[in-house]
Amino acid sequence: MDTRRTVTVDLPEALLLALGRAARSAGCSPSDYLRAVLRGALDRTPARLRTEGEEILRAVNLSADWLELQRRLRSAGFVLRRAPEGGLAIHSWPVERALLPLRALGLGEADLTLRFGTGFPADAPRGLRASDTARCGRAA
Fold first, then answer.
1. How far apart are CA 77 and CA 92, in angstroms?
2. Based on the domain organization, do 89 and 111 belong to the same domain?
3. How far apart are CA 90 and CA 85, in angstroms?
4. Total-model pTM
5. What are phi and psi of 91, to 5 degrees?
6. What is the crossing angle of helices 109-116 and 13-26, to 10°?
7. What percentage of the chain has pLDDT greater than the value 90?
8. Domain with 62 in it
9. Most buried pick, 11, 15, 60, 64, via CB within 10 A?
10. Left if phi > 0, otherwise alpha if psi is -120 to 50, otherwise beta: which for 44?
């Protein structure tokens, strides 16, 4: 039987705010998110395999910008692309085929745009690199 105990954890305000943001992005409560992070950190056995959704959410939660997110997703066999109907979708990588809309994981493009401070890089005008659009967005 899973017995639960209430514990008190002393966290700096910045970490507490980051926990709240990460939980919102993952579509769960901060307590559920913290339990999942602790479970993942404590379960270091090589036999544990994450689900596709867990891999994708982990990549999102560990990324500081769009480029890092794409890098992490690719290392897990995924990539983020603009969906034909709008919004963002997860595709397989390197053989690209649409898997699911980002919304299915409880994440929206607006959430990531706010988190990363700039829009999805594929939407940048031709001839500009993602780093150029990030600098332009911060300079405004």
1. 6
2. yes
3. 13
4. 0.55
5. -120, 160
6. 160
7. 29
8. 51-139
9. 60
10. alpha
